[in-house]
Design a protein that fits this description.
Elements: H1 9-20, H2 24-29, E1 31-38, E2 49-51, H3 53-66, E3 71-81, E4 84-94, E5 101-113, E6 116-124
Parallel strand pairs: 1-6
Antiparallel strand pairs: 1-2, 3-4, 4-5, 5-6
């Protein structure tokens, strides 16, 4: 494992803040050149899978298209082990399609490469 794979809790906190600020450029600053985003929802076993910077950017933006007021509240402390990490959160947002308020607990499992996020695998409880 290369030391360049190490990231700090501040790095992950900055990533979460970028989500809550709806700052797509700042989010992408955290992502590796060859990145993957596996959304917590979608038709496949991995949810919806977005591969490559352009697609990941579209995947990230789709959250705000579907939940314009999306917010992630961190739960506990992130833990980082080598080139992997996990962050827990509670998601809240109003679904644009029907106006329903959604609240669900979830987590992101990360894999890092050269100090950036190579894989963001999001999982969440099924919201009613």
């Amino acid at each position: 494992m290369s030391k360049t794979n190490q990231v700090s809790p501040d790095f992950l906190a900055s990533f979460t803040q970028a989500w809550n600020d709806q700052d797509l450029d700042k989010l992408m600053d955290h992502m590796a050149d060859e990145c993957v985003f596996m959304a917590s929802v979608g038709p496949e076993v991995e949810g919806t899978r977005w591969v490559g910077r352009e697609e990941v950017r579209k995947g990230f933006a789709s959250l705000w298209e579907n939940y314009p007021d999306a917010h992630f509240e961190p739960v506990g402390e992130d833990f980082i082990v080598g080139d992997r990490a996990c962050s827990e959160w509670i998601f809240t947002g109003t679904r644009k399609s029907d106006g329903k308020r959604v609240k669900a607990r979830g987590c992101d499992v990360y894999t890092f490469k050269d100090g950036k996020i190579a894989v963001k695998n999001a999982m969440r409880k099924q919201a009613p």
